Amino acid sequence: MTEAFGVLEPLAARYVRREVSIPPEADGVVRAMPVVLRLERPPAARTPVLEAAAAAALAVCLDPRAEPGGEWHDAVATWVGGRIRKIARRARGAHWAAVLVLPGVTCVVDSPDGRAEARALLPGPVDEVPKVVSRLQIGGTELPADEPGPPPPGAPVIWVNADLEMTVGKAAAQVGHASMLYAAAHCLTAVPAFAVRDAGGAQWAQLCDRVDRGQGVAVRDAGFTEVSPGTITCIATSPV
Hints:
This protein is α+β, with helices and mostly antiparallel strands and 240 residues long. It has one domain (6-141, 148-237). It contains 7 helices and 9 strands, in the order H-E-H-H-E-H-E-E-E-H-E-H-E-H-E-E. Helix 1 (9-16) packs across helix 6 (168-186) and helix 2 packs across helix 6. The longest helix is centred in the last third of the chain and has 19 residues, at 168-186. The two termini are 16 Å apart.
């Protein structure tokens, strides 16, 4: 793995090289990145929605506006320097249109089942979320498991721990963590076309072994919602 750079360097130090522990917020302010999933009626399939969420979270960090001197740099760097919390919400229709005017990046994934869209917004204090975002529901809509087939050749893969049975919102936040950690570990300057796939049982055990051998990047959850602290929720691996 190469040396990380720029705004993602703290992630490489903490999660990849394990040089330092995650510090508490220096100013006591809890920050998070809102990730809004576009779920119209009928919604897109689960896998492309998660792929769009993974890409959008990383896209904000790699956006030129997040570079030193950019208008987003202070907000993104402060957030990355602490816990990279994400809160996924859902929107459709006029509510989705209202979210599009807020600072952030939208990523689109087309699939045979339709178009999936997710917009990651500029991270900030959780108690200062714009009203157009705070009124969006966090839960309430679950997407059934789909069958996307094997990952396409050349795509890095984010494997989701299927045994946890995470909600779509929880999984969206976790794949967003995974895309950022993978980018930090591999010093990416552009967002790749991540494939998201479920893995459980023996396959998941094999993936955990790959992490131990330095062949994958694991997301270990803080345990605020749905899973216990330290649980590995996702593992990102390089293309085969």
